[in-house]
Structures are given as structure tokens and as C-alpha cells.
User: Which sequence fits this backbone?
């Protein structure tokens, strides 16, 4: 059951992390000009 | 309306040993997909070029989807509660995916009405059913932390835009080498690339949402988490263990007070979101130029997305500790103060402007994520999904009212590109007034009168589980 929980969370976490990284990269221009 | 047996509620009752921590990823899988509806700016210019239509016409496709979200969640809320989360998630996945594929057909053949039908109507129905599909189930699995549970799911709706926005840019540039996602407002992808992007998204979202539908389970009758004592929950102010039907809920003043609260909070948030990019440039305009570049303004929009998503999880979880009414007092009262500061000292420095704006947006997101738990407190778990669906009409109304208010005031002040911070004050102070109305409405919320409760709580539980 623990492996299934980890896999399920990973499945949704990967796209969220991708979106966060891309957005933070874009947001950084606000501070760097 | 009966559903096929493999979708039926009684087929997805959790067996002993099932972990409730599988439910949030199932819910997130659905919300991450439907959150795409807020990632339309990447291809909006391409749509304008493809259909030779105005920005307003293209913008109406997405407004229609949000209006359909509210209407379908209202109409299908009771169906979702009766048939359970798997049937709801499966149906939402089919509608959302088919909607995107019909829109792809419209793009490919150059027929705008098919895009309205596909994305706006069919997809919009998928949005509404998908949005409310996990809410009631999460609340039943997490009676001890309903704010945390719904915050995790509804955070996914905010996160959906964060994921879809860069993904769409990459897909379009992969299918059309001339498209530059970094300049999406000026760059335009061709019809072939747009069509392929919608087909890829439609199929990918179908698979992802089906994962949610296949994973989700409902708790067995009478299940409660280890160490959870329902009597402690009941001792909190405003929290009931009684049951109120959706039919009765809309006859209570509490429902309509919460409708006003949600409407005011969402309208005020949209006031920032709608104009975020031009607003930060106008606040720091000196003559014809702004000290904030277009790229920096796009970065500001990205920052708002992060705080919109984060606020949903952080504030909704916090509401489990401090209570629903106090947290809405913070969203509305705190938001009011922040809007006053934005209107008066917002133009003193970009740091001040950004800090005020991200806090306002975090309250906007928090308002969405906390409302299912507030409904659970007031009306019980019996038909909380259906009641939530009816309440979301406030979102649809705010989606129309917010832009109308902001654009109406700004149009009266002057031409785009010539506005300065002072020109925003009438719109911002209107938002202050709206937040004050919402603040008072929240203060007026009292426990629901006994006459609205279901007469027999035992039979209610049985019907709820049926």
C-alpha cells in the first residue's frame, strides 16, 4: 500500500513541480528585470 | 439517471487497509487537468489570428466555460452526490476530453462555433462536474481536517494553470517552429499546431483523469480515522453533525450569506488577476514608458499564480485550526485593508505593490479552497457536494461582474497604455466596498436552524451512502 501511495503522489507531484519550476523561472524576471 | 455498474458507488467502497492518503492524489489528478481553463493566454493571440476574431470574442469562449462550470455544478451536484466520485470523475473526464477534441475539430476546420460548443459548453460541463467530484468524498475521508483535504484538491485547480501554461508553449513551439512561447502575446501559432495541441491535451487529460476515477474510493459506512472523536468537532462553534439537504440548504440565509461572501471574495480577486500585467506597468508608468518591462510584468503574473495556488492549501489548512468564520474574516477584512494600501501606497515601490498583490491573491485562492469545509460545518456531509455545486454559481456571477467592474472604470479613465496608478483607484475602492459587504455577510453567519435539518439522521446516513 505504501508503494501505491508513493506512486500516486509522484504522478501528481511531477507535473506540479514542473509547473512550479517553469513559473518561478518566469517570475524571476520580475526581480532581475 | 443510473450509471454503469463499474462506476456505481457500492463498487468503490474501500476495503479494510485502504489508505485515505490515496484520495488527495486522485482528486488532484482531476483538478490539475481542469485547471487548464486558466492557462489560455498562451494561445489567445493564435486564436484571434486563426478565426480573425476580436480579443473579446475569443475571451468569451473561456468566460462561457466558467459560466458552464457554475451552471453544471449546480445542475449535476445532486447527481454527483448520489452516484459517487468515480462516476463523477469518469463523466467529467469524458466531457472535458471530448470538449477539447471538438474544439480541435473547430480549429482545424476554421469553425469558431465548434470551439464555443466544444471548449465552452461540453468542456465547461466537464469543468463543473470535475470541480465538485472529489469534494464530498474528501470531506468524508478527512472529517478531522476537511480544510486540509479540500485545500489539497482545489490547490490542484490553481496548479493546473501552472502546469498547462508552459506545457502549451512547448507543444505549440514543437508543432510550429515559428511560434515563440516567450512572446505568446505577440507570437501566433498556425492552425495545425493549435489543433495538435488540443488533441494532445484532450487525450493526456483523459488518461490522467481516469487515474483519478480508478483510484478514488468512498469510506465504509461509519468509518472514522484512528483517534478521531466526532464530539470534539461538534463542540466547535458553527459546526454541526446534523444533515441538511441541498434542497433545504438553498432556503437558508446561511447559504445566501456564503454566496455573497464567495461572490465578493472572487470578484475582488479577479480585479487583480484580470489586469495583472498592464496594472503593474501602469502603476510605475513615467510618461509613455514604464519602469516595469513586459517580461517583468509576465513574471508578476507567474508569481500571482504561485500565490493563488499556495493560498488555497495554506489558508484552507489554517482554517482547520482557527475556524472557518475567522479565516473568512481575514480573507475579507485583511483583503479590504490590503486593497486600501494598494490604492494609496501601492505605487511607492514595486516591492510594496508585489507584496500587497500576492497577499490579496492568496486570500482569493484561500476563499475557493475553504468554502467546501465551511459548507460541511454548516450543513453537514449529507449533500455537501450538491450544496457546493449550487454555491459555485457565485463564481460564475463574479467571473462576469469582476471584469465588467474593472474594465468599466478603466475605460472611463483613458486609453490602455496611458493609464497611471491614480486611474485604478475608483476600481480598487469599489473592490474595497465589495469586500466590506462580504465581511459583514460573513459576520452574520449563524448555525443553521433545526427546522432545516433532516428529521432522521440514521436514515439520512443510509441514503447518503446508498
Assistant:
Amino acid at each position: 500500500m505504501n508503494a501505491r501511495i508513493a506512486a500516486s503522489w509522484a504522478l501528481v507531484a511531477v507535473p506540479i513541480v514542473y509547473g512550479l519550476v517553469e513559473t518561478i523561472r518566469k517570475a524571476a524576471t520580475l526581480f532581475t528585470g | 439517471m443510473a450509471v454503469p455498474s463499474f462506476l456505481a458507488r457500492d463498487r468503490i467502497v474501500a476495503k479494510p487497509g485502504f489508505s485515505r492518503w490515496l484520495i488527495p492524489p486522485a482528486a488532484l489528478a482531476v483538478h490539475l487537468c481542469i485547471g487548464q481553463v486558466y492557462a489560455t493566454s498562451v494561445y489567445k493571440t493564435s486564436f484571434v489570428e486563426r478565426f480573425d476574431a476580436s480579443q473579446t470574442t475569443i475571451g468569451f469562449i473561456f468566460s462561457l466555460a466558467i459560466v458552464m462550470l457554475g451552471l453544471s455544478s449546480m445542475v449535476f451536484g445532486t447527481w454527483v452526490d448520489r452516484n459517487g466520485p468515480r462516476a463523477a470523475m469518469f463523466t467529467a473526464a469524458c466531457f472535458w476530453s471530448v470538449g477539447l477534441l471538438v474544439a480541435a475539430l473547430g480549429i482545424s476546420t476554421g469553425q469558431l462555433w465548434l470551439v464555443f460548443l466544444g471548449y465552452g459548453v461540453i468542456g465547461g460541463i466537464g469543468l463543473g462536474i470535475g470541480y465538485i467530484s472529489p469534494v464530498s468524498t474528501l470531506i468524508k475521508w478527512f472529517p478531522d481536517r476537511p480544510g486540509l483535504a479540500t485545500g489539497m484538491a482545489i490547490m490542484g485547480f490553481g496548479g493546473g494553470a501552472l502546469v498547462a501554461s508552459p506545457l502549451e508553449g512547448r507543444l505549440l513551439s514543437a508543432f510550429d517552429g515559428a511560434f515563440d512561447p516567450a512572446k505568446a502575446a505577440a507570437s501566433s501559432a498556425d492552425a495545425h499546431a493549435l489543433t495538435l495541441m488540443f488533441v494532445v491535451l484532450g487525450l493526456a487529460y483523459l488518461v490522467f483523469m481516469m487515474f483519478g476515477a480508478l483510484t478514488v474510493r468512498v469510506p465504509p459506512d461509519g468509518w472514522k480515522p484512528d483517534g478521531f472523536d466526532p464530539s470534539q468537532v461538534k463542540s466547535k462553534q458553527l459546526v454541526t453533525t446534523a444533515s441538511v439537504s441541498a434542497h433545504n440548504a438553498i432556503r437558508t440565509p446561511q447559504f445566501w450569506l456564503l454566496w455573497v461572501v464567495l461572490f465578493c471574495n472572487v470578484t475582488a480577486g479577479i480585479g487583480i488577476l484580470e489586469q495583472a500585467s498592464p496594472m503593474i506597468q501602469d502603476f510605475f508608468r513615467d510618461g509613455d514608458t514604464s519602469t516595469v518591462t513586459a517580461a517583468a510584468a509576465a513574471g508578476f503574473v507567474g508569481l500571482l499564480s504561485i500565490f493563488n495556488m499556495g493560498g488555497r492549501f495554506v489558508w484552507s489548512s489554517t482554517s482547520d485550526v482557527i475556524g472557518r468564520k475567522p479565516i473568512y474574516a481575514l480573507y475579507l477584512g485583511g483583503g479590504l485593508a490590503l486593497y486600501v494600501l494598494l490604492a494609496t501606497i501601492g505605487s511607492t515601490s514595486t516591492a510594496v505593490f508585489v507584496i500587497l498583490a500576492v497577499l490579496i491573491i492568496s486570500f482569493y485562492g484561500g476563499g475557493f479552497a475553504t468554502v467546501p469545509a465551511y459548507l460541511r460545518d454548516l450543513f453537514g456531509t449529507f449533500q455537501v457536494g450538491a450544496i457546493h455545486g449550487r454555491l459555485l454559481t457565485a463564481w460564475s456571477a463574479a467571473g462576469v461582474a469582476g471584469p465588467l467592474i474593472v474594465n468599466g472604470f478603466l475605460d472611463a479613465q483613458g486609453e490602455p497604455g496611458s493609464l497611471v496608478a491614480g486611474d485604478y483607484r475608483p476600481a480598487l475602492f469599489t473592490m474595497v466596498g465589495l469586500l466590506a459587504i462580504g465581511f459583514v455577510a460573513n459576520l452574520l453567519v449563524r448555525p443553521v436552524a433545526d427546522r432545516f435539518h433532516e428529521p432522521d439522521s440514521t436514515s439520512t446516513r443510509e441514503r447518503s451512502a446508498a
Summary: The helical segments of chain A are 2-27, 29-32. The longest helix of chain A spans residues 2-27. Chain A has a mean pLDDT of 89. The interface with chain B takes residues 1, 4-5, 8-9, 11-12, 15-16, 18-20, 22-24, 26-31, 33 of chain A (CB under 8 Å).
